[in-house]
User: Fold this.
Amino acid sequence: MTSQTTADLLATQSNDSSFENVWDEIVYRGLVHVSTDEGALRELLAGPPITFYCGFDPTAPSLHLGNLVQLLLLRRLQLAGHKPLGLVGGSTGLIGDPRPTAERVLKTREQTAEWVDKIRVHVERYLSAAGENGLRVVNNLDWTEPLSAIEFLRDIGKNFRVNTMLKKDAVSARLNSDAGISYTEFSYQILQGLDYRELYRTFDCVLQTGGSDQWGNLTSGTELIRRTEGVTVHAIGTPLITNSDGTKFGKSEGNAVWLDATMTSPYAFYQFWLNQEDTDVIDRLKVFTFLSRAEIDALAVQVAERPFAREAQKRLALEVTSLVHGTDAARAAIDASAALFGQGDLTVLPGDVLEAAIAELPHADVDGTTTVSQALVATGLVASLGAARRAAAEGGVYVNNERVSDDSVTVASLALGGKHAVLRRGKKTLAGVTVAS
Assistant:
């Protein structure tokens, strides 16, 4: 995080005034994949302030890209005057929602409590605590832990039908797998339903948001409230963010893009957005930025007419990196990108930014005796020492943006701080080298 404060960040944000209703804007931005009654939701969100919530389980020490979708949806609803509740799952985090493939490894109470505190900080960064519709953070351990097993089964479990629970996508997938599903994870949807009812009773909460893959858990709450309270409440399921081959981004898939700078560096985060495909970038701008419809339409024209300029990707990367890590970190990432390709000075980059940039390149660890030729081979920039010598003789080898014609010099003698070096062959082929101390 940089010197940019949460107040600074939130002060720059607004909904697009060209939309009559916040419902229309979130639909335009592709934030509604599935929902309860659309007409009722549109009317509800156009009326007096309502209370709404989203839950975040502490199954890791950081939130990730999918959670950012929820946080931005919550922020848009808050900007429209509605009242957000951010739920951190001190109890559901001890259980874990069922994954489609395998049982989760349960975390200790101490680990879960530590991660609850980290998740709370993330949630508080993206939503304002000021005013009558300021953020309120709640922990479901507060109302779940006092329940006895008998109370849970009689008062809550009695309202759920096993045949309905079995039809939920995650449960069905696990039942048809070799792993099966434990009673613990099978019960997760009951706990989430209990959360919604508790928030309805305490805060008059009438809307829950979550990922569309959680739809079964979302509707467990709407059904419990209908059965026990006799009222209709609502849910919105957002689309899953996938890469170009349709694979979901997330910790379960091993390709999570984390919001914590120690887990995904601001440089790597910036590069992720910069590398979005032309076919995806406009949708990403709609979901992840506060740019207006007019600004996004103008960038769509740029994509169509001048795709090689990648203006939309550059703006996307700047906006989202600034949102998550601050403007200083975003500018440092831009400077690092330019410097790596010879359009800036590597020596002025902060050490952590340089290390993060090098970590994203094909990389080799070498010792103090390794020559430039050997490093080129070790990093895969050339296939052989002979090819390395020819590339250097032809003027196509650079170390830290300085042309190297003598390939027999050691990398250590050219490394920044005697430790890091960026090797470049030609204009665009890069690799990183770290010299062992």
Notes: The CA atoms of residues 393 and 405 lie 6 Å apart. The chain has a mean pLDDT of 92. The chain is about 45% helix and 10% strand.
